Amino acid sequence: MSARIAPSLAERIDAVLPQQQCRRCGYDACRPYADAVAQGAPINRCPPGGESVIRELAVLTGRPAISLDPDCGAHVALAVARIDEAWCIGCVLCIEACPVDAIVGAPKRMHTVLPSLCTGCELCVAPCPVDCITLVSAGRTWSPEDARAARDRFDATQRRRAAPAAIDGRSSRHDGEIACGAPAADVARERRKSAIDAALARAQARRSAAATTRR
Q1: Looking at residue 7, what is its pLDDT?
Q2: pLDDT of residue 5
Q3: What Rg do the C-alpha atoms of the chain give, in angstroms?
Q4: CATH number of the domain that residue 41 is part of
Q5: For the whole model, what pTM was predicted?
Q6: Do both 87 and 184 map to the same domain?
Q7: Of 35, 54, 88, 198, which is most buried with the most CB atoms under 10 A?
Q8: Do 200 and 87 touch, CB atoms closer than 8 A?
Q9: pLDDT by residue, tens only, the chain of 215 residues
Q10: 124, 120, 64, 58: which is closest to 94 by C-alpha?
């Protein structure tokens, strides 16, 4: 029977982080921040974790506990995203931004957030072209079980999103020559941009009509 390998310092730090994948720490996800902390980065850059996570990281790293870095944001109660479905244009930008697949929908179809899966990372808010996403109180606290489930969903989402890219990368080359995959991708991107622009125009027209009716 092989000996069990003890987790590395980065793995133990990652296990302490809340796994909300919000990027407020300045890193692309919780694990890159854990790796950085293990190598000496500040332990006070996780707003979702707040002071309790800072204390745990202080114990793990042997460093003094310090106050949360205000440049990263404040520690606040858990909030989850909510989509105003009346104004959603089905652009899928929020779906692509969600790190844990907590938003369901399809192109040109209304999207909705699954509150039980949402981490409150806010990454879906900025990409929305019609500002129909807000954060509302979750009415609960973020638990260690939530963190473990969110980490699993994040890892699964990353693997799923990487798979098509890997397939495209293999199929776009043959005998050292570049195939036509890149132009096709450009065409698809332009079509999608045109569809989003058209949907945005329709949404703006609806907003203008609604504002006129209220006068």
Answers
A1: 87
A2: 75
A3: 21
A4: 1.10.15
A5: 0.77
A6: yes
A7: 54
A8: no
A9: 556 677 899 999 999 999 999 999 999 999 999 999 999 999 999 999 999 999 999 999 999 999 999 999 999 999 999 999 899 999 999 999 999 999 999 998 999 999 999 999 999 999 999 999 999 999 999 999 999 999 999 999 999 988 865 555 444 443 433 334 446 556 656 666 666 666 666 655 665 665 566 55
A10: 124
Phi, psi of 106, rounded to the nearest 5 degrees: -150, 160
Residue 151 in contact with residue 158, Cβ under 8 Å? no
Give residues with Cβ within 8 angstroms of 57, minimum separation 6. Answer: 13, 16, 37, 43, 63
CA of residue 104 relative to chain centroid, distance = 14
Q: Which domain holds residue 95?
A: 77-215
How many domains, in total, are found in the chain? 2
Distances (CA, A) of 8 to 12, 13, 30, 215: 6, 9, 15, 63
53/90 same-domain check? no
